[in-house]
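FW: tagging you since you asked about this chain on Friday. Here's the raw sequence from the shared folder, copied in full. Didn't touch anything.
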Amino acid sequence: MTQCRTGIDPGCPQTRERRRPDVRNDTGPVAQTQAAVAAPTSRAIARRGFLVGLGAMTVAGCVGTQNRAGLTTAPPQPQPVVPPMYYAAPEEPFPVPEVDVSKFDQRYWRQEVDYPNTERPGTLIVDTPNRYLYHTLSKDRAMRYGIGVGRDGFSWAGRARMAYRRKWPRWTPPDEMVARRPDLEPYSIANGGMDPGPYNPLGARSLYIHKDGKDTLYRVHGTWDPASIGKAVSSGCIRLINQDVIYLHDQVRDGSTIVVIPDPAMSHLLVS
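HL: got it, structure written out here
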């Protein structure tokens, strides 16, 4: 009888007893333990994946508030509210439209301010360097207007009189200007000047400045261009928003003193 070789012959009873059981389908304690260990690991991996995805979504949300250059887009600034003093004036012979107040800085809006001074109430003071006109109310207060200053506005400074005022004035460029600008010949003094209206550079009102009984050719007048307020411009004298010059026209008296402070930066334009 052949002897059974343990661990070699499959038919040997001892070999069958010592063979390792197949644990692939085992539901015993070992398999359950391995499954229990593997489960948390799988859950951790899944959770990490979820967090990475959430982070990507968060970053994507931030990117959504940026432009293509990677710069954060600032929210639009609110438009300034038009105050009643700058509403349209349809009752005028030539209707004056509402002022686009976004075109010039709010510090140039008409307003009553503290203004210590030594002038009589009712005096006009043109602060050329700072682009303001003051109409004094007392020794401490004044109504302040923003102005634009044209080339001719830099050409004269000193003390004089506001001789008279005109509503919807005609514009008559001086002969010297016509000589430089032949295209202005149709509006020359000889031809009667330019009719009043929305194309007239003097606007809705004009104040005429005389010194020693003579016309200085210096004017305080209206403008249709609010963007020119607070600036040095190429032509004209002292310009105010039409609504402002209409108001000033009704407040000032003929014969009032006017003081013009020169701009040191424009001293080369002064005419002695």
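FW: The chain has a mean pLDDT of 81.
HL: agreed, and The radius of gyration is 44 Å.
FW: great, closing this out.
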